[in-house]
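Hello,

Following up on my earlier ticket. Below are the two sequence lines again, exactly as submitted.
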Amino acid sequence: KAGVTQTPRYLIKTRGQQVTLSCSPISGHRSVSWYQQTPGQGLQFLFEYFSETQRNKGNFPGRFSGRQFSNSRSEMNVSTLELGDSALYLCASSFARLSDTGELFFGEGSRLTVL
Amino acid sequence: EDKVVQSPLSLVVHEGDTVTLNCSYEVTNFRSLLWYKQEKKAPTFLFMLTSSGIEKKSGRLSSILDKKELFSILNITATQTGDSAVYLCAVYTGTASKLTFGTGTRLQVTL
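Thanks for your patience. The regenerated structure is below:
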């Protein structure tokens, strides 16, 4: 079955703009999590959505937001972009809320560059 | 605040060598520890460990967890160039329902 699909794969924005990233989870998976990956900080948790509700949020400013649709697809939005937002944004899905397995299936990410 | 620390940050070995990667953690409500391999973009799942002292094996890779000392190791024997990647350790905590990742160990295997 198809894996986690993220679009766009690459994008370049300028400071002050906003961006929307999309994630389609594995069919049947209801939980979608977002992570930001930078060379210095590694993977940092942004938020988790399950059944269209945000269940958990990481320590990021309010400029970072997301949502999940009834088909489990998710989007994340970053407004008023800053240079420090340049990163690889990874989406991951799991069947239920992170279960006892804690296993996530990752997409290939959207690489955002802010100039 | 939950913390996961990996060491070394990077290492270069020759093909055929054996390597040991380390992961220590300080978290509340530990549920499981996971290892991922990230070659280019998407991290891929390697192991999940929940119980101390039980080794998980997959081919040349193996991992074990010590819940008393709060660490895990990932061993790779007879390394190959295809093992070159960043290896990520993550801890799942039931309270926050999220994975806390270490910054990773970058492994380069040379001929």
